[in-house]
Specification:
alpha/beta; about 30% helix; methyltransferase; methyltransferase activity; Protein N-lysine methyltransferase METTL21A
Length: about 220
């Protein structure tokens, strides 16, 4: 087995802090592949940087916690696309989404890191939460992925609406996040009103939690 890189190789050298965010390339090893993610902090800010939550979620997927072969997945707020790229390499068909402004950058990372035979399994598509949802068939995805997408309170209602639309009765949602503020817990509470939510993983080094959510089934025996 190749070594599993849980941190970008350069991180140790650069020390913590913003240096790694400003690096033009962040290198990872996942799914027996070397993945080089171009970062563009100056142009795109937070959308164009690999955040720890994406690394922890990619690691979790690589550990085989979810069956990805042949699975239909969507990544929300993909930014650099690391999670979607890893899911594709692990056998999923992934729709990798973000807002319009981030799409060109996202596409370039996806194309640079997927071999030609895998590229058809990864589709980059525009999705602004709460908008243009009709271009996504409801409940179509087995797996909905999000890394560090819970951070702006004004987006919570749109994000919940989007999750509700994409999520079928048997879909699984995996969200990786740091719990930094009270509002992060508020979002999880909002999510918990519509979905069964449980914590499935915690990375103490990066202080990242992974939550699993599934649609609540109405009791049929009533």
């Amino acid at each position: 087995m190749g070594e599993m890189a849980l941190v970008p190789y350069e991180e140790a050298a650069a020390g913590m802090g913003l240096q790694k965010l400003h690096k033009p390339l962040a290198t990872f090893s996942f799914a027996n592949s070397t993945i080089q993610i171009r970062q563009d902090w100056r142009q795109l800010g937070v959308a164009a940087v690999v955040w720890d939550a994406a690394v922890v979620l990619s690691t979790y997927l690589e550990l085989g916690a979810v069956e990805l072969r042949g699975c239909s997945a969507v990544e929300l707020g993909a930014g650099t696309g690391l999670v979607g790229i890893v899911a594709s390499l692990l056998g999923a068909h992934v729709t990798i989404t973000d807002r319009k402004a981030a799409l060109e950058f996202l596409k370039s990372n996806v194309q640079a890191n997927l071999p030609p035979q895998i590229q058809p399994r990864a589709v980059v598509k525009e999705l602004t939460w709460g908008q243009n949802l009709e271009s996504f068939p409801p409940g179509e995805f087995d797996l909905i992925l999000g890394a560090d997408i819970i951070y702006l309170e004004e987006t919570f209602a749109d994000l919940l609406q989007t999750l509700g639309h994409l999520c079928g009765d048997h879909s699984l949602i995996l969200l990786a996040c740091r719990i930094r503020y009270e509002r992060d817990n508020n979002f999880l509470a909002m999510l918990g009103r519509e979905f069964n939510v449980s914590k499935v993983h915690y990375d103490p080094v990066k202080d990242v939690h992974i939550y699993k959510a599934q649609r609540r089934h109405k009791r049929e025996d009533l």
